[in-house]
């Protein structure tokens, strides 16, 4: 291979590529954008809850959580086409006419996206008429539930074509740009939700407020920003725009199936339990309790996934050009980083989540300790496998994805239907965690690590030891703070968190030494 090929996405020492940005800078920009996005996600799913409860009852909140989860599931309409496109865009980097082939593939796939939106939109409207969501999910007494559900799902469906644009940004080293644009849409959407809640107070008004900003983002990204940033896209229709053949279109769906299965399983693990608990548990308070508790575990998982996404494009490039040394080193370091981050967050949440939960819900919803511990420890356990998942998505491992993620989806659904009627929300938590550990980590992650690293089992042992030390230390410090600083209320909670952060900062302060960091990196088995 040539140095020119390696530098297409930045060299190992962080030197810039043709776009003027090195690997380290791209990763930092991507992580900073994702950090803001996660903060906005926390605001949406944590900080807005007290405002909702100030106006709505617990039943109304449970209805909104179900609507929000259904809207999040709409991304399955992508059918894996985004990751299919990403892998094709990466492959085009080795072609003589990279921009031309990218533009033609982009235009052809965009027409498929538009056809998907049109067909599914019609089917969705028919389904809502024939089987009202309020009757299916048990919210017949909630006003405007059906209309809000329709607006949420249809609106999010219209944003799906923006996935293709986001994939192109990711491959071309502009991942942070699309995330920052989405951050602006999320912020405006939250402001609009509060305004709709104050003025109208209905589920429909809040759903419209949320969806309208997402649509604005999709139109801005696909219609204006992408053609300006990538001028070659304007030439995609020349020669005359000929729709892709039916055979070619079906072929794209066939090649995208493994990625669709992987994405569907991930979304199912986050969102389907909310709907299953809503349908299988008659206690509406338990439904709200589950919805609120799983929010924090989903955010831990989401944060880890967001951290891995900027790494994914870099790993995918190294895999495409055959640079195994850089690939191995980046994967090993990235795996440790993602796992340490998840464990550190869980270590802080375990001791202080009960106090926050009481403040967050104003004591109106009871705290469930076994449910919380199960979900949080499961989030830490699955963290190493998330990097393996995104790397498999960006290295065209379709066969591996469809076998492992398909099996995980089956295991999760089977356990859910067995455990939820017996154990309620705890059964849903056990189904999620068990499918993660047995399949995603035990099969997918292990296979990817064996194919990527020289010493996969030593790497796993290193991760396990690090996880025990980080979670155990953080939890013990939290318990000591709780014992030494008794009390209750918001000020007391803030003081507890501040003391914990100061203690963790003091313990981690030696990492500010560059020489020590390099020695620790050298200890990571790769």
TrEMBL record:
Residues passing through the membrane, by range: 31-55, 61-81, 112-135, 147-168, 206-224, 330-353, 373-393, 400-420, 426-448, 460-484, 490-512
Claim: Membrane is one of the keywords in the record: yes
InterPro entries: Poly_Biosynth_Transport
Predominant location: membrane
One of the record's GO cellular component terms: plasma membrane
Annotated stretches, region: Disordered: 1-23
Domain of life: Bacteria
Topology of the protein relative to the lipid bilayer: Multi-pass membrane protein
UniProt subcellular location: Cell membrane
Signal peptide boundaries: none
Keyword Protease: no
Keywords of this entry: Cell membrane, Membrane, Transmembrane, Transmembrane helix
Protein name as it appears in the record: Lipopolysaccharide biosynthesis protein
Organism: Bradyrhizobium amphicarpaeae
The organism's taxonomic lineage, starting at the top: Bacteria, Pseudomonadati, Pseudomonadota, Alphaproteobacteria, Hyphomicrobiales
